[in-house]
Amino acid sequence: MLYALLYKLHTIYFPFNVFRYITFRTAIAVITAAMLTFALAPYVIERLRRLSLTQQIRNDGPQSHLKKAGTPTMGGILILTSILVTALLWMDLKNPYVWIMIIATAGFGIIGLVDDMLKVTQKNHKGLRPCYKFAAQIILATGISFFLYHNPLDPYSTKLSVPFFKRWLIDLGLFYIPFSVFVIVGSSNAVNLTDGIDGLAIGLVAIAVLANGMLVYISGHAGLARYLQVLYLPMTGELTVFCGAMFGAALGFLWYNAYPAQVFMGDVGSLGLGGALGTLAVITKHEIVLAIVGGIFVIETVSVILQVLSFKLTGKRVFRMAPIHHHFEVKGWPEPKTVVRFWIVGILLALLSLSTLKLR
Fold first, then answer.
1. How far is CA 117 from the centre of its chain?
2. Cα–Cα distances in Å, from 345 out to 27, 288, 326?
């Protein structure tokens, strides 16, 4: 909204022309989202506490987490509000990709909100039944994937881009829809599984979205895409601003979510952010790169799958506790050390994902 208003003024006063540049609006989006989060956080945290919207701790989780009972949860409302308000202020709302990202972020966030509300009202950590949660996620992701499959703006609508190779494209045809659903739903739940200790998930989201923002900008810039020999996807460059909003909101929330956390994001935050990352990857043909830059999310998910399969088939556990961040906690790693070490790995994976630009 502000973008459209301010950019029109460039005919009267030329410096307003700066608002046409994606890089400028991305920087403004980072600042806006962070400032909104800082401004709203004290009020939101206090309201969550007064309404008794507090964390339900798993009985089978690390014993050190029992002291976290009573910490306000559903702070993801704060994150998503900052992202969506910032997007509406600084993005070109005539761009259809903007609305896809808004719908994905809000839609997965609402699913998480229902899950969180059930956990609080039923006074347990289970919340929404998994079959209902997955059904809602699959329906939403299918709608997004179906739109993108028939997207006239995308000349590579059914193609899968393979990193490290010059324009190596795999045409998935109709299989593109279930593949995209898998990426979006998988990303949403992977972030959700990673959100288990203070600051871990939101820090990794900030790292992942920063790397993805660079890749998105390049893919949406004809000159850079041609120079680096990556797919040029018209109109997707605008999503760099959305990445900026996500990054700013993540930084703002991390201020309150860092150890010891004053608020948890809850499923409303983790499902919403994960769904946004997955949708962004599908739109910009970075599905495989997402698995690299979000490698920690993948490892966390695989650790849960291995733990469940091993216990059901052999009666033995692969890890002391799953997801894998709990394994290291049980081994004796202090919570802040676990978080920082996982962030370090996340940064290295982000750099590896960016290296795909030159190794083509």
1. 21
2. 26, 18, 16
Domain ranges of the chain: 2-159+170-287
Q: What is the DSSP letter of 17?
A: G
- What's the pLDDT at 359? 64
Q: How many CA atoms lie within 13 A of 272 on its CB side?
A: 33
pLDDT tens string 309-356: 998 889 888 988 889 999 998 899 999 999 999 999 999 999 999 887
Instruction: Give, for 171, the enclosing helix (H) or strand (E).
Output: strand 169-171
Spell out the residues 6+ positions from residue 356 whose beta carbon is closer than 8 angstroms to its own. 163, 164, 289, 292
Cβ burial, residue 194 (10 Å; 0-12/13-18/19+): buried
Q: What's this model's pTM, rounded to 2 decimal places? A: 0.94
Q: How far apart are CA 123 and CA 114, in angstroms?
A: 14
Sign for the CA dihedral angle at 193, 195, 197, 203 comes to positive
CA distance 125 to 217: 39
Collapse the DSSP code of 54 into the 3-class scheme (helix H, G, I; strand E, B; otherwise coil) and give the result.
strand
How far is 211 from 294, CA to CA, in rounded Å? 10
Residue in the structure block whose two tokens are 């990193």: 163
Say if CB 217 and CB 237 are below 8 A apart.
yes
